[in-house]
Amino acid sequence: MKIAVLIKQVPGSESALPIDSEGYWVDESSVTFVMNPPDNYALEEALLIKESNDDVEVVIVSMGPLRVQKVIREALAKGADRGIHILEQDITEKDPLVIAKRLSNAIKSEEFDLVLTGLQSDDTGMGQTGVLIGEILKMSTATLAVETIIQEDHIRIKRELESGWFQWVQLSLPASISIQSGLNTPRYPSLKGIMGAKKKEIHSLSATELSKEETLQKVNNVFVPQTNKQTEIIKGDIDQIVSRIIEILRTDIKVI
Amino acid sequence: MNILVVLESNNGALHRLSREALVGAQELGDSIFALIIGNENEEILSELAGYELEKVITVKHHLLSSYSADGYSEVVRQVFISFSPDLIVIGHTYQTRDFIPRVSAKLDIPFIPDVISISDKGFIKQVLNAKLNATISNLDNAAIISFQSAAFNEEQLKLGSCSNESFDVSLVDSDIKSISEEPFQEEEGDVDLESAEVLVSVGRGIEKEENVTLAFELAKVINAEVSASRPVVDSGWVDSFRQVGSSGSNVAPKLYFSLGISGAIQHVVGMKGAKNIMAINKDADAPIFEISDYAVIGDVLEIVPKLIESLEQSK
Ligand SMILES: Cc1cc2nc3c(=O)[nH]c(=O)nc-3n(C[C@H](O)[C@H](O)[C@H](O)COP(=O)(O)OP(=O)(O)OC[C@H]3O[C@@H](n4cnc5c(N)ncnc54)[C@H](O)[C@@H]3O)c2cc1C
Asked: Residue range B23-36: average pLDDT?
């Protein structure tokens, strides 16, 4: 069985996010990048499938500038077998359909049985790439998987529904599945894994050679959200903070 | 502008986000077509009959007796081709996430998801963990727009009348590549978050499992219940029935006291109805402060122990 895990590199949750001079996106030169946290769960799920089944190959696919090779290496260090890097210099391209078409072209010949993605990226949060690829490559699709069970020519998925409801679905393979965060505990790479990853193959392709797709939606600008709520800001030394909180609880809101 | 609104049934009743999507569509367009898929939608149809819509399109088929991404995406594709609307509008539900990207790829039109509002420059959605908003637009083509919970107020739905039309969809067994089983619910807790008057809610800012006891201790002195954000539940630090948000409970206490929660939209939809929101967060730019009445900028691990101590002394 061949599994592709699609991994994106995104700004870390603690990273500075200064808006660039055109107001178009964040100035990437001051951003610290990490593996998209939801994708880390998809990677772990693939590694768990590999460990409990024979002959499973886990291939990491990531698109972006040269810097994304770092997350591919990180995934290889955790136990993935090889990587495919689709070199995309144009970081302004944020149309998920264009991205999905390029990714589909890049992986089509690999004939993966399973494509796993995180449920959305922490940067643009479009939450659709995996399902788009599933449709483009004529695979079955499911989202928000909280449990996966591989059975011969199909896969059983426990899907999260809204308000604490769940549902089992059975999909024929090949399938593209987006993984809900929290279903497993992503591992850390071992020292041996980190050493071993250096020898693993990362195959590079150029995105623009794959296809010249027309952009259908674009991000015009980003801005800091404004609020019209009256907020009292409580700061100072710890004793001042604590006594103001107690005063609010007692006299303003009257809950104690 | 012609708009096709794709509605969702929530156990036979109209999903709240579908109602909000109808309001959004009424604001954006002049001719609204509402599509409802499935075989048992009598209750929804009688509700829709009272709204100002151009037409309600119903689609029934034996292969549509339960939801599947394969079936539903094919229905929307066929209806789109037949009615050629300028926009498809839908609520941003889990089901939408599951099948609407398929429609986007089938029709080669963009899907702009999770929109919170509309400006003259385009559709606004949150990006980068809600720290920034982005304006997104479609370029000279039809598009699919999904609206986040509370983007519109369902009470503003314009009343009126409309006609029904049933649409003959063509589906064959081999179109459906999945088998869906009956939905079910898991563990129900012994805590009723929804009726709690005060909630102390813990987020990842509590840093470690052993620190979660701080939240329970604080809750005890102010007579509150403990709730949590999803990552805290996912880490197994508190029981899942304590989760607040789009995949947990919807709460509206008199006070929601948030400890180290960033304020992601999926969390906020579950608690923004609270009468008073007090948040402690060490990051002055945390999105939770945008909806807070009281913003405490500081470290929960320093403030909460002191707060518990002072509260106990002043009893
Ligand atoms: C489909 C879907 C459904 C979801 N459903 C839910 C849901 O139902 N409920 C939910 O909560 N989330 C849900 N999420 C996840 C949501 O997007 C966020 O990831 C989550 O709410 C973040 O939780 P958090 O605020 O605890 O953690 P983080 O976002 O990591 O925030 C931690 C915060 O703590 C602050 N902090 C850190 N250390 C300290 C300290 N010592 N003192 C003070 N502050 C500190 C940080 O500044 C930060 O703001 C869902 C996501 C998706 C995609």
From this structure: 96
Q: Are residues B227 and B122 in the same domain?
A: no
Structure confidence at residue A229 (pLDDT): 82
Same domain, B144 and B201: no
Domain count, chain B: 2
Inter-residue contact B232 to B262 (CB < 8 Å): no
Report d(CA A36, CA B179) in Å as an integer: 31
Rounded to two decimals, the ipTM of the complex is 0.93
Residue B131 inside a domain? The answer is yes
Name the band, by pLDDT with cuts 50, 70 and 90, for residue A91.
Answer: confident
Q: Is B105 on the interface with A (CB under 8 A)?
A: yes
Torsion of CA B156, B157, B160, B161, to 10 degrees: 180
Indicate whether B111 belongs to any domain: yes
Q: pLDDT class for B129, splitting at 50, 70, 90?
A: confident
Q: How are beta strands A114-118 and A2-6 bridged, if at all?
A: parallel
Based on the domain organization, do B201 and B249 belong to the same domain? yes
Cβ of A208 under 8 Å from any chain B Cβ?
no
- Amino acid A235: pLDDT: 87
Nearest by CB to B294, from A26, A223, A248: name it. A248
Give the residue, out of B202, B266, B296, B299, with the most ligand 1 atoms within 8 A of its beta carbon, to mutate for a pocket test. Answer: B266
Considering the domain architecture, whether residues B89 and B211 belong to the same structural domain is answered as: no
pLDDT tens, position by position, A177-212: 999 998 999 999 999 999 999 999 999 998 877 777
Contact B291 A227 (CB under 8 A): yes
In terms of Cα–Cα distance, which of A7, A132, A127, A130 is closest to A58? A7
Tens of pLDDT, residue by residue over B280-312, are 999 998 999 999 999 999 999 999 999 999 999
Report all structural domains of chain A as residue ranges with CATH numbers, in order of start: 2-210 (3.40.50.620)
Q: Do B298 and A238 touch (CB under 8 A)?
A: yes
Domain assignment of residue B93, given as a range? 2-175
Choose the residue to mutate in B267, B268, B303 for probing ligand 1, maximizing ligand atoms within 8 Å of C-beta.
B267
Q: Which helix (H) or strand (E) holds A254?
A: none
Minimal-distance CA residue of chain B relative to A245: B307
**Structure tokens given for B215:** 């939240």
CA distance A35 to A15: 13
- Identify whether residues B207 and B89 lie together within a single domain: no
Residue A84 has a pLDDT of 98
Please give the Cα distance from A219 to A95 (Å, whole number). Answer: 8
Gap from CA of B205 to ligand 1 centroid (Å): 8
> For residue B180, is it within any domain?
no
